Amino acid sequence: MPTTIDVSLSVNGQPVRRQAEPRMQLLELLRDDLNLTGAHVGCEQGVCGACTVIVNGKPQRSCISYVGDADGSAVTTIEGLDNDPLMNELRAAFTRHHGLQCGFCTPGMLITARDIVTRLGDVSAARIREELSGNLCRCTGYVGIVEAIQETCAGKTPVAASAAIAASGARTETSSSIAVTETAAPPRPSSTPATSAAGKPSRQGWTSIEQRLQLVSAPADVWAKLANFQEVARCLPGAEITAIEGEHIEGRMHMALGPMKVAFKGEGQVHLDAATHQGTMTGRGRDTGSGSAAEGEVIWRVLPADDTHATGSTLLVTLSWRLSGRLAQFNRAGLVQDIVQRLAADFAANLDNAMTGAPVSSSQVKPISVWSLLWSILKSRLKG
User: Fold this and answer.
1) What integer pLDDT is reported at residue 295 of this predicted model?
2) Could you tell me the domains of the chain?
3) What is the SS3 assignment for 9?
């Protein structure tokens, strides 16, 4: 494994090229190398939001972002928004409404506030509070902050905001396998199954990822195994089924985020269509420790293998979710697609093992360590 890597990126519109250690944080590069100290060192676990910067047009926690992952990206810090009209409007509103005291959280808070205005336009105070759940302030009680953002949002639309992003020079990117759409009032999940895992329209306000997994067993055998939810839970790291009654299901999902361990406890509904080999599960849960809530939907369909001459099957899975509370920032995490892909690969391997009678590595409930996943993803990228 190399001791340093070449990194090229744009910071506040200026090209930057560095030799960096693989585990160097983006925050370290900004503060220590470039003297851009507006991004503050707070929790260093991606929880407080003080280090928030804009990466490719979206807010991102620089304390949990590796420099190597920012290669080729456009990064904007609070210093790079000195002449941004919308940011100047927000600064003035924060001053009028006393939206800061010690000021430690303010740079990250302003960047998140700018994202709220540009992405959502004129929204309610309740939605603003929800969007701010990933930025912590120990001084103001948030009242002045919310009032300042709501004043700035008044009369604005997301369409006009998109033009403001383009005018500021921020770069935006899209991906074919991950989609995020926002609206002021996202609908509740429905238990009605879609006609196909790939064909259901994306739910506004949620993040959706589609995965295509190749399995060694025949479609009929895979479908029969997936109908046994206790067995399926054993194949997914961190998952646990606690009760099943008809189409009603209860369970937990354990996850480790640095020093913070969360266990979402919730319930949902499952619908199975044996004729099409398709299933839908919708549900919601809450972690009392972090005060975070989650809504989600999983649609899966078992198909013949992609190669018509091959044995086995293809499992098409569409995962959609929406987080609120302290974990809301992970709705738009930069590496979320890689994390889901790695979890999907582990699930597919465990499911294959379960089909053949081999040991399943997640037979005991263990929290998912997101940081371990991030490190393994970075190592695989460096090897490539």
Assistant:
1) 84
2) 1-173 (3.10.20.30), 178-383 (3.30.530.20)
3) strand
